């Protein structure tokens, strides 16, 4: 019997983290021939994840260049995949989430009339510029996709409201929870000694990431001023800010927080280092999407440094709180979690609605059932908060 031919496409570190456990699961299925294509929209950070999960791409477009534009990324992905699809003719192309690689990959498959599966489908803010360009990337990808792997019932409902056929939607949980089963270990030792020397037991260590486009400029400035105030007014707080390499972000962060006592400014960490730092820290402050899913899995409250989120389930569950980029609001909410044990416990013990570590199995089962290669094994994810 001929195997089901799949090409899995991704280009950034967040995509790679979430696709890695799925790739491993697809490789385990004897009836599937899965090939991996990376665009390398991000090069160095992508390679870290590939090495961590021992994934060797079959195709590497290697498109990254300095000061690349969204138009340039889209053009290069379309052109690179056109040749690969023409030669390989897969039965299914899998893309993930909301990057420019995701949308361009889905579009390239559509042009060849190849079926598309969208992992982490159905997330919406309903504001096309927040986050930019992610909101439109995922919405346009969803319009093209034949199989929609929604991480939560809420994401499924978004797709149903947009007219997607219910038989094309599979609620699976989020694969990032699967990935954390590979990366988080007890007694973890960091490669960076500065991280090993921090007193996680006796101090309240806050992990921070903030770099999204919509926060560039005044938003990042306000965030940094708020962080500085929080540290200076709480003697038991240490701050670890993983600073994005983009100078638009980096220059502002170092100008405001550089040299401040108990503030550690570090470059982005490898995936396993990031997950284990999250596991050791007291709480997380971020404008990242993925950390809103990952940190609650480890019982860490999250303050989201954005005005809107495409992950409302976490807000409803109480694992995260939207605080925006107002300096006073960030300080107020940060201080509350630092000083109010009751509020901290409430958030840290709330149920994470994003997964149980079996999303990859559900996706693989759903694919095989869609192509009539097995029956009855797919079970919808229903681990909802109460």
From TrEMBL:
Annotated UDP-N-acetylglucosamine 2-epimerase domain ranges read 24-367
Query: Does this UniProt record's set of keywords contain Ubl conjugation?
Result: no
Record keywords, A-Z: Isomerase
Signal peptide bounds: none
Q: Would I find Isomerase among this entry's keywords? A: yes
Enzyme Commission identifier(s)? 5.1.3.14
**Could you tell me one molecular function GO term of this UniProt entry?**
UDP-N-acetylglucosamine 2-epimerase activity
UniProt cross-references to InterPro entries, sorted A to Z: UDP_GlcNAc_Epimerase_2_dom, WecB-like
**Taxonomic superkingdom:** Bacteria
Record-linked Gene3D superfamilies: Glycogen Phosphorylase B (3.40.50.2000)
NCBIfam families under this entry?
Answer: wecB
Q: Belongs to which family?
A: Belongs to the UDP-N-acetylglucosamine 2-epimerase family.
List the protein's name.
Answer: UDP-N-acetylglucosamine 2-epimerase (non-hydrolyzing)
């Amino acid at each position: 019997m001929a195997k089901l031919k799949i090409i899995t496409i991704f280009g950034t570190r967040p995509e790679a983290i979430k696709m890695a456990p799925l790739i491993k699961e697809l490789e385990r299925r004897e009836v599937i021939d899965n090939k991996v294509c990376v665009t390398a929209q991000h090069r160095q950070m992508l390679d870290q994840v590939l090495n961590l999960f021992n994934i060797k791409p079959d195709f590497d477009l290697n498109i990254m260049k300095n000061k690349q534009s969204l138009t340039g990324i889209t053009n290069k992905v379309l052109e690179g995949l056109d040749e690969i699809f023409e030669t390989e003719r897969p039965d299914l192309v899998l893309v993930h989430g909301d990057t420019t690689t995701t949308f361009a990959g889905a579009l390239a498959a559509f042009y060849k009339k190849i079926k598309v599966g969208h992992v982490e489908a159905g997330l919406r803010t309903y504001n096309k510029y927040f986050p930019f360009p992610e909101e439109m990337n995922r919405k346009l990808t969803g319009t093209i996709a034949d199989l929609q792997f929604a991480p939560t019932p809420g994401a499924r409902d978004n797709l149903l409201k947009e007219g997607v056929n219910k038989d094309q939607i599979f609620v699976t949980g989020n694969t990032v929870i699967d990935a954390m089963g590979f990366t988080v270990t007890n007694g973890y030792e960091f490669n960076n000694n500065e991280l090993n020397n921090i007193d996680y037991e006796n101090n309240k260590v806050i992990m921070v990431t903030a770099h999204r486009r919509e926060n560039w400029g005044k938003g990042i400035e306000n965030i940094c001023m708020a962080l500085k105030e929080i540290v200076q007014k709480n003697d038991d707080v240490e701050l670890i800010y993983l600073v994005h390499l983009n100078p638009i972000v980096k220059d502002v962060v170092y100008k405001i927080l550089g040299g401040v006592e108990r503030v550690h400014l570090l470059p982005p960490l490898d995936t396993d280092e990031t997950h284990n730092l999250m596991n050791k820290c007291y709480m997380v402050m971020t404008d990242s999407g993925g950390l809103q899913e990952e940190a609650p899995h480890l019982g860490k409250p999250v303050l989201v440094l954005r005005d809107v989120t495409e992950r409302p389930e976490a807000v409803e569950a109480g694992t995260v709180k939207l605080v925006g980029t107002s300096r006073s609001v960030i300080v107020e909410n940060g201080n509350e979690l630092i000083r109010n044990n009751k509020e901290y416990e409430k958030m840290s013990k709330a149920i994470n609605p994003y997964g149980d570590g079996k999303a990859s199995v559900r996706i693989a089962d759903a694919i095989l059932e869609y192509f009539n290669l097995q029956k009855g094994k797919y079970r919808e994810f229903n681990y909802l908060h109460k």
